[in-house]
Amino acid sequence: MNKQLSEVAVKTYLLVGAGDKLFPHRKTIANAQKRIKTLNQIKIFSGVGHGIETYDKALKYIGQTIARYGEFKYYKT
Questions:
Q1: Of 33, 37, 56, 59, which one is least surrounded by beta carbons within 10 A?
Q2: What residues contact 13, with CB distance under 8 A and at least 6 apart?
Q3: Which of 7, 67, 18 is nearest to 45 (CA)?
Q4: What is the rounded distance in angstroms from the CA atom of residue 65 to the CA atom of residue 36?
Q5: What is the tens place of the pLDDT at every residue in 5-28?
Q6: Could you give the number of structural domains in the chain?
Q7: What is the DSSP string of 15-51?
Q8: Do the domain assignments include residue 57?
């Protein structure tokens, strides 16, 4: 997994739950900072455990982050 993380080539936003027992957030953040050269931002949600992808405030944060980049352009291939 470490090799794959070091190969990430796109701007990366890390969202973690401070209460995640399966992947403790401090260890996750340290690993990301060490290996993901394109790590752009880290957001820690207090009181949130594993399964952050279903947490409504995390989803809202993702939507707001995407919206800052304007409209997506779709191209036919």
A1: 56
A2: 40, 41, 42, 43, 62, 65
A3: 18
A4: 19
A5: 999 999 899 999 999 999 999 999
A6: 1
A7: EEETT-SSS-HHHHHHHHHHH-TTEEEEEEETT--S-
A8: no
Say if CB 42 and CB 32 are below 8 A apart: yes
**29 and 58 in contact (C-beta within 8 Å)?**
no
Q: For residue 5, report the phi and psi dihedrals to the nearest 5 degrees.
A: -65, -40
Domain range for residue 23?
Answer: 2-49
In angstroms, rounded to a whole number, what is the distance separating the alpha carbons of residues 32 and 12?
Answer: 10
Q: What is the C-alpha to C-alpha distance for residues 52 and 48, in angstroms, rounded to an integer?
A: 7
pLDDT computed for residue 2 by the predictor: 82
